[in-house]
Amino acid sequence: MHDLYIYYQVREDGASALQPLVAALQSELAARYTLVPQLKRRPQAKNGLQTWMEVYPAAPAGFDTALAQAVERSGILPLLAGPRHTEVFTDLISCV
Fold this sequence. Notes:
Alpha-Beta Plaits; four-stranded antiparallel sheet; DUF4936; 4 strands; alpha+beta; globular; 32% helix; DUF4936 family protein
């Protein structure tokens, strides 16, 4: 398992249309994979753009592919101001 951090930019005037689409995307994935996704954004906008981040902690094997397919179906891509960037992190030490 690994944690996925996906960040991207959205125009401020498109944020209200994007949020329910991302929420539906994350809800679908949470139900299918029993994980607890998060949606975050930087507190300030810059040049009319907000930076958003989707977080998928403890994503199981194969989740990356399912996420990419869900994103394609979701309708969010036209609302983004550029590409989605994915970072993958793994735990060094488990505290559990």
